[in-house]
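Q: I'm building a small set of examples for a reading group on sequence design. Run inverse folding on the following structure and report the sequence directly after it, with nothing in between.
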């Protein structure tokens, strides 16, 4: 070992300069420290991969991944999404084959986002029994009945103005929107959806959907509520993928202020009281503290949405050679799960499932 200047070891041994190629004659010191050192040496269980795997506290399982799918009535073949490398819009005609690939990798569920050919002021395509999502549900369940199908319940992809509810005098109307969301929900479940996931952030929408489902005999259908959904800059690539950017203003009047952690807990509490079976924190990475607080307080299943901007950042860094994509992706997903997520909605699901199968 070559030493160019005098140095002091961690144990406090004073070392003199040595010539190139010489080795240091250092007597190890094992200090007696309150707390048990050297009897407690945490590095013992890190020495090799077998030991590390054996004591690993948090594990990823593809069955806990939910993969987003964008289904469009306006295309005839797969259309790559520029802002989200590796992701595409899919025509209904190709969705069954894609679902088979997803199921073969062991991914537990898909969540569907629809892009209709025609939009209007009230988003009526959302509850069209022959709409794009309804067609996709039937195609997927016919091809892969074991694959859980979740549908995003919102109006933003179907309205001509791009907002998540009925607009009057430039404002989204809360209570009138609930009726439209209930129509959309019932249409999805009638087509075969296993879980419905309201993402609109209207007050009282979980209760409205639970009441509508129960009244129509769908009392066994779970609701996965986007409970703590923040007005985030990380949704940018999704707006391109779902063609759902608002035509005026923004969504901060109904999505949450990113500064408010305590309010997020109030939103979660209300959704649970209204009948949510699963609650969600979205986005995941900037809100791991919120996710952990929800986990500490409630025992029901919790989902986290690893959103499009988070995905795009990793993809861009990997494309530039700045990070190891595989390691960074799996580390990201482990971090989300360690913070408290039982389920992770992620665009990385297919890659992660392949990588986990290789380990």
């Amino acid at each position: 070992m070559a030493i160019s200047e005098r140095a002091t070891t961690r144990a406090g041994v004073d070392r003199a300069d040595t010539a190139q190629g010489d080795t240091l004659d250092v007597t190890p010191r094992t200090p007696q420290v309150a707390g048990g050192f050297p009897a407690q040496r945490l590095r013992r269980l890190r020495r090799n991969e077998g030991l590390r795997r054996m004591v690993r506290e948090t594990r990823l399982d593809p069955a806990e991944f939910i993969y987003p799918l964008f289904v469009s009535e306006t295309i005839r073949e797969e259309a790559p999404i520029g802002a989200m490398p590796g992701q595409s819009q899919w025509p209904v005609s190709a969705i069954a084959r894609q679902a088979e690939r997803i199921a073969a990798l062991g991914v537990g569920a898909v969540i569907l986002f629809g892009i209709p050919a025609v939009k209007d002021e009230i988003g009526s395509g959302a509850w069209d029994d022959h709409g794009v999502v309804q067609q996709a549900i039937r195609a997927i369940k016919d091809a892969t009945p074991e694959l859980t199908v979740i549908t995003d319940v919102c109006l933003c992809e179907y309205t001509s103005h791009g907002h998540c509810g009925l607009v009057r005098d430039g404002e989204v109307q809360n209570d009138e929107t609930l009726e439209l969301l209930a129509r959309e929900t019932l249409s999805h479940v009638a087509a075969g959806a296993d879980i419905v996931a309201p993402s609109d952030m209207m007050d009282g929408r979980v209760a409205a959907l639970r009441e509508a489902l129960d009244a129509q005999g769908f009392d066994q259908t779970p609701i996965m509520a986007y409970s703590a959904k923040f007005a985030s800059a990380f949704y940018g690539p999704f707006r391109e993928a779902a063609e759902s950017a608002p035509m005026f203003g923004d969504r901060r009047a109904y999505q949450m202020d990113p500064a408010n952690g305590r309010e997020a807990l109030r939103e979660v509490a209300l959704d649970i009281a209204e009948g949510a079976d699963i609650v969600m924190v979205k986005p995941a990475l900037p809100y791991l503290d919120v996710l952990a607080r929800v986990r500490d307080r409630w025992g029901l299943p919790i989902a986290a949405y690893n959103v499009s901007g988070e995905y795009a950042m990793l993809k861009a860094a990997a494309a530039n050679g700045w990070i190891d994509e595989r390691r960074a992706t799996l580390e990201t997903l482990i971090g989300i799960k360690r913070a408290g997520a039982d389920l992770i909605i992620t665009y990385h699901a297919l890659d992660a499932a392949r990588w986990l199968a290789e380990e």
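Confidence is low (pLDDT under 50) at residues 1-16.
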